[in-house]
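Aim 2 progress update. The chain analyzed this quarter is reproduced below.
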Amino acid sequence: AVVSTQSTGMERCGFRCAGCGMKIAPSLAGTFRYCAYLGKYFCHSCHHEQSAFIPARILHKWDFRKQRVSNFAAELLGKMMFEPLYSVQDINSALYKSVSELKYTRALRYQLFFLNEYLRACKNGKDLLGSVTIRGHVYNDPELFSLEDLCNVKDRTMIESLRPIVTSWLQHVDNCGLCRGKGFICELCERKEVIYPFQLNTVFQCQMCWTCFHSSCFTGTCPKCARIRSRRTLSQEDPAPQERFSND
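Predicted structure tokens:
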């Protein structure tokens, strides 16, 4: 069955190597090597049986078993290893539900995303930002992952590296009057505690005006957005000054 499948694949490409284009007799089709990344067959000169992680297998099956790839694919995947190219949310959001480490890593990254906004605006927090050794996309775009990131999620090294940073940044905000002053008071209840968008489990942030509320208080309608819409409606209905004082 494997030989038959390979012969069929070779027949589709005219019994030519997908790399150098060398043509062989159909009887020798079984000597070519399959590239698990490109899905094509290569001669021995273009395929040295190097192994690599396959992005699709990781993103769709959480499968980190290395597969044999062509020389070109091995070089390409090596260059792509550290580039944040993959949005798990867009490619396979169900992975967040099935892989607890990935879900937890995403939560840590979103906390850093929101905390970063506070520290960037704080004259006392910029030293903390300058001291981190993680790459910028980790906290600037929580949905993007590189192959290296996904591997680090798998072996939990990303979690172990992010947790102390989150703790440190949280401690800064908690002890900094400037940062606390940028927090929110939930206007839907009478509690006077200061809340923040990085409190992911208990706080909801409106995606239109960025106001924060307790998740348990929010019912689906943002009162600040409602006020803004109301003012816009009134301003549109209010006649222009020249019309209001016209003698006609």
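The first helix runs from residue 2 to 12. The radius of gyration is 27 Å. These observations will guide the mutagenesis experiments scheduled for the next reporting period.
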